[in-house]
Design brief:
The model has no long low-confidence stretch (mean pLDDT 93). The protein has an 18-stranded antiparallel β-barrel. It has a two-stranded parallel sheet with strand order 12-15. The protein has two helices and 21 strands. The protein is mostly beta strands and 420 residues long.
Length: 420
């Protein structure tokens, strides 16, 4: 029933679009099969590997005319077999991934409001998390100033779980209470520089005295720099966090990264980089102080290895991370390419139970093949080689193989487009 109503709504929107300047309707079907044997954490004894197929299905409508843009993205996320056959309802149902409108106030200034993806620079602090089938979106208001080489965005969001008559305590898990941020970017011929200030409010709930429920704010300030010259590209992130975490610890944390990429030929690129995220001694905040950096709303699967041992639903407020990596990309033809990355991981802060900070190494392989204009195939394999530090961190000394493999098909045709 929900799917039927959603399709009717988009169809009515499609009919309404005639007579206006531009309308595009496209879709995405993305099934992905995964084999997990040590993904995110070391594989324990006496367990079987996980094997499943997840799928993302989207229907996207994009409507533009002078001074106004509107975008709607409906999605269904499922695992094959999560509901029985002949079932009369879905487990999750259709959801709204994005639904926003953008109003032009003048040639350079616009207002964007509604549920939307928020992504900046290399997605380290704000990203759409496109790898995850559900991805990430925010209910927010953005005031945007944009011209040819300078952009500035002011973003505001305030979350509640219902239309209450009293109180403002947020009980929805896994989200923030309030954010305010300012992002600016300036580009020159060979250099691009961005600044970001994020005021991030997390809801604290006192289980004994509800009068002490309050929002605790941390501040993240930093820059993303990128320089390109002939075959070289250098990029860097520098961020500092202060304020309070949700447990009322004082924050004093930082992130530093540097990456160099060189295009040897049109078909071969190599890169070398390193990233340091500060952490807590023995993985625990002490004396009311938290030294662990939190990348918050970034596309963390993109960084620190594809097996997601760090900052993808885990490793927050822990011992931090030093990630030194070497990567290369080989382009075989216009249709296919292979990416290879090798990471060396170690803790930034001392680990409990061992004097060794070394966590291990990881090898990531990703192959992409374009079958036709609207159809592509991707496959990957990752293997983690843990050291004593990782075993101590995870509390697992079972000495099992830790690997992960996946195959993903993406079909994303444009169903209809018109310009009037």
């Amino acid at each position: 029933m929900k799917l039927h109503l959603s399709i009717k709504f988009v169809f009515c929107f499609f009919i309404f679009s005639f007579g206006y300047s531009q309308f595009t309707l496209n879709t995405e079907l993305r099934p992905r099969s995964e084999y997990r044997h040590g993904y995110k954490t070391l594989f324990p004894d006496n367990e079987d590997a996980a094997l499943f197929v997840s799928q993302r299905t989207r229907l996207n409508a994009d409507y533009k005319l002078d001074g106004l843009s509107f975008y709607l993205s409906l999605q269904d996320i499922r695992v094959w077999g999560d509901v029985p056959q002949l079932n009369n309802s879905d487990k999750n149902g259709i959801g709204i991934h994005q639904a926003w409108g953008e109003i032009a106030l003048n040639n350079d200034l616009s207002l964007k409001v509604g549920r939307q993806e928020i992504s900046y620079d290399d997605h380290r602090i704000f990203g759409n998390v496109g790898w995850a089938q559900q991805a990430r979106s925010h209910d927010a208001l953005l005031l945007k100033y944009q011209n040819s080489n300078f952009n500035m965005h002011l973003g505001l969001a305030y979350n509640q779980d219902s239309e209450d008559l009293t109180g403002t305590t947020l009980t929805t898990p896994g989200t923030y209470k309030s954010i305010q941020y300012l992002w600016g970017n300036k580009t020159w011929k060979k250099l691009s520089a961005s600044i970001l200030f994020l005021n991030n409010g997390m809801q604290f709930i006192d289980l004994i005295n509800s009068n002490d429920n309050k929002t605790r704010y941390s501040q993240t300030l930093g820059t993303h720099l990128k320089h390109q010259d002939e075959g070289w590209m250098l990029s860097s992130n520098l961020f500092y966090q202060m304020g309070k975490d949700v447990s009322n610890n004082s924050l004093n944390a930082f992130l530093i990264s540097l990456e160099a990429n060189y295009k040897v030929t049109n078909k071969w690129q190599i890169g070398l980089g390193g990233e340091l995220l500060s952490g807590n001694n023995n993985g625990i905040p002490e004396n009311g102080k938290n030294k662990a950096f939190n990348p918050f709303y970034g596309t963390n699967h993109k960084f620190n290895g594809h097996m997601d041992y760090f900052y993808v639903g885990n490793h927050i407020n822990n011992v931090g991370l030093i990630d030194i990596y070497l990567k290369t990309k080989l382009v075989f033809s216009e249709k296919d390419n292979l990416s290879i990355a090798f990471h060396n991981f170690s803790a930034e802060a001392p680990l409990s139970g061992t004097g060794k900070k070394q966590l291990g190494n990881e090898l990531d392989l990703t192959y992409n093949y374009k079958i036709q204009k609207y159809v592509s195939l991707a496959a990957g394999y990752a293997h983690l080689f843990p050291s004593e530090g990782m075993k101590s961190l995870k509390g697992n000394y079972d000495e099992n193989t830790n690997n992960w493999g996946w195959v993903m098909l993406t079909i994303n045709p444009t169903l209809f487009t018109t310009n009037n």
